[in-house]
């Protein structure tokens, strides 16, 4: 398997640190709003990387954080007159719902920055002891960037050309030894959340959070560190400096970065206001379509979002789903059980699609090519099956299609949509069943609705329902 490593700017053969295991960290979102589909891109593509690694037999320890302390979260909390914690908690919940709806697997651990402050204090103290960091009169702690000899190795930047413009404190302050030094710990401002520390009451810088969470849950050396390409500099460059200066070991072996999701060839971002939330897309499409759209491009290429491309993705997915539906239909009505000799030959012949799919994915997770192979398989299947096909043949082909789609996180069965009218009718029927003491039927109706994502609540004012 080859992966493109931002560190070497080359495709490299993937060799894990420990045989059969992959330790992977993906930088997660800052939670102050519903996530937009740009944020969804790393979630979908690195979930697909994980799924493929698992398919290959690796045990993947997948860690992805939530940045739950940040200027933007605090700003939103002030606007709403609630605590920063309330904001982050709310949007973590919402983000998890979106992830589930996009069929993004839950991480092995989803750490929260605010729950890992002790580890951050420890790493910052070590960096000070080793001479890689210093505190100033107001209790700010800076990383001594020029002391870390490999600084710039990820972003391939030359130290002297660098400008220290990043998400922490932007202005060059007089108490900094060097303009390139970046913040590890900063003093609180009035009304902000803060933690006690040896330097001042304050909060961590953004970069130290990921260094610490990665170390705690995956160890000092990991296989893959990933995120959007905007994180290469300064975020990931700074993470490398902190972790390698502290631990004296190579932090991550492979650095993977996804390209931007653009609109009109501009990065989709909250600050530019040119974004769609995942929720907005969900109003119009099954989120499997969004997933399919994202995977139709290579993860490192820029991807332009447009209504036309979403429609094309929908049509493409429908084509695959229709073929799957047809297989199921034929299988249910099949008159022959066992595979015929000719079918066995076709079955063997279709191995080639699995091989081709794997070689696309082995080539730096080329999902665009992998999807083309799924289309080829669909075409092949459509020409080889009919009413006379055996159940065994049909079922095997269906499983093969499922297997490939599952690696991409694509669910072949369409979510059954339920209309409000239908819900109300079922609720009325359930009430009647309860009146007649037919509790079995009443429970059955509750389960039917639950399967369709509808939760019933019996309240004093009657039965209420909500979407799960
Ligand atoms: P943030 O919440 O800004 O920290 O971003 C969370 C993740 O989403 C990071 O990995 C970003 O690189 C990624 N990201 C944000 N906007 C986009 C975009 N338009 N296209 C692709 N990835 C993005
Ligand atoms: Zn990070």
Identify every distinct bound molecule in the structure, by name, code or SMILES: adenosine monophosphate, zinc ion
Q: Tell me the number of strands.
A: 15
Strands side by side in the biggest sheet: 4-3-9-10
Beta percentage is: 5-15%
Q: What general form does the structure show?
A: globular
Task: Tell me the major beta sheet.
Answer: 4 strands, parallel
Q: Helicity, in percent?
A: 40-55%
Please give the radius of gyration in angstroms: 26 Å
Q: End-to-end distance, in Å?
A: 39 Å
Number of helices: 15
Query: From the helix content, strand content and strand pairing, which structural class follows?
Result: alpha/beta
Mean pLDDT: 94
User: Unreliable stretches, pLDDT < 50, 5 or more residues?
Assistant: 164-169
Order of SSEs, N→C? EEEHEHHHEEEEHEHEEEHHEHHHHHHHEE
Description of the structure:
The chain is an alpha/beta fold and about 475 residues long. The chain is built from 15 helices and 15 strands. It has helices at about 35-55, 70-80, 85-100, 115-130, 205-220, 230-245, 280-285, 285-295, 305-330, 340-350, 350-360, 365-385, 390-405, 420-435, 440-450, and strands at about 1-5, 10-15, 20-25, 60-65, 135, 140-145, 180-185, 200-205, 220-230, 250-260, 260-265, 265, 305, 455-460, 460-465. The strands form five sheets. Strands 4-3-9-10 form a four-stranded parallel sheet, sandwiched between helices. β9 (about 220-230), α6 and β10 (about 250-260) form a beta-alpha-beta unit. α8 packs across α9 (about 305-330), α11 (about 350-360) runs antiparallel to α12 (about 365-385) and α12 runs antiparallel to α13 (about 390-405). The protein starts with a strand and ends with a strand. The model is unreliable at about 165-170 (pLDDT under 50). The structure holds adenosine monophosphate and zinc ion (ZN). The site of zinc ion (ZN) has 3 residues, from loops. Adenosine monophosphate binds near residues 27 and 38.
């Amino acid at each position: 398997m080859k992966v493109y490593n931002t560190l070497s700017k080359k495709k490299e053969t993937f060799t894990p640190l420990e045989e059969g295991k992959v330790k992977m960290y993906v930088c997660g979102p800052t939670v102050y709003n519903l996530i937009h589909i740009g944020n969804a891109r790393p979630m979908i593509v690195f979930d697909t990387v994980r799924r493929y690694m698992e398919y290959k037999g690796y045990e993947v320890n997948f860690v992805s954080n939530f940045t739950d302390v940040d200027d933007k979260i605090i700003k939103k909390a002030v606007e709403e007159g609630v605590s920063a914690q309330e904001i982050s908690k709310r949007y973590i919940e919402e983000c998890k719902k979106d992830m589930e709806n996009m069929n993004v697997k839950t991480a092995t651990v989803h750490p929260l920055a605010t729950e890992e402050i002790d580890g951050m204090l420890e790493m910052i103290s070590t960096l000070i002891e080793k001479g890689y960091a210093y505190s100033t009169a107001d209790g700010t702690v800076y990383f001594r960037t020029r002391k870390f000899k490999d600084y710039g190795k990820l972003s391939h930047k030359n130290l002297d050309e660098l400008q220290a413009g990043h998400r922490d404190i932007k202005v060059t302050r007089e108490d900094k030894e060097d303009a390139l030094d970046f913040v590890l710990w900063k003093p609180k401002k009035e009304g902000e959340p803060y933690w006690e520390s040896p330097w001042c009451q304050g909060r961590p810088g953004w970069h130290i959070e990921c260094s610490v969470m990665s170390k705690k849950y995956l160890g000092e050396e990991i296989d893959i560190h990933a995120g959007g390409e905007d994180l290469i500099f300064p975020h990931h460059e700074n993470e490398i400096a902190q972790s390698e200066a502290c631990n004296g070991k190579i932090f991550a072996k492979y650095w993977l970065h996804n390209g931007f999701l653009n609109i009109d060839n501009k990065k989709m971002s909250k600050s530019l206001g040119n974004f769609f939330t995942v929720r907005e897309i969900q109003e119009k499409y099954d989120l499997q379509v969004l997933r399919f759209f994202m995977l139709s491009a290579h993860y490192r290429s820029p991807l332009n979002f447009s209504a036309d491309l979403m429609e094309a993705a929908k049509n493409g997915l429908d084509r695959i789903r229709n073929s799957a539906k047809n297989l199921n239909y034929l299988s249910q009505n099949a008159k022959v059980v066992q595979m015929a000799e000719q079918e066995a030959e076709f079955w063997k012949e279709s191995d080639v699609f699995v091989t081709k799919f794997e070689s696309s994915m082995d080539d730096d997770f080329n999902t665009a090519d992998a999807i083309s192979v799924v289309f080829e398989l669909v075409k092949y299947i459509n020409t080889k099956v009919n009413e006379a096909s055996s159940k065994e043949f049909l079922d095997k082909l269906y499983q093969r299609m499922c297997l490939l789609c599952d690696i991409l996180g694509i669910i072949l069965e369409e979510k059954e949509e339920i209309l409000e009218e239908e819900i109300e009718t079922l609720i009325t029927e359930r009430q009647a069943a309860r009146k007649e003491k037919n509790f079995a039927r009443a429970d059955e109706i509750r389960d039917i609705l639950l399967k369709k994502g509808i939760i019933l609540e019996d309240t004093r004012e009657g039965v209420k329902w909500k979407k799960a």
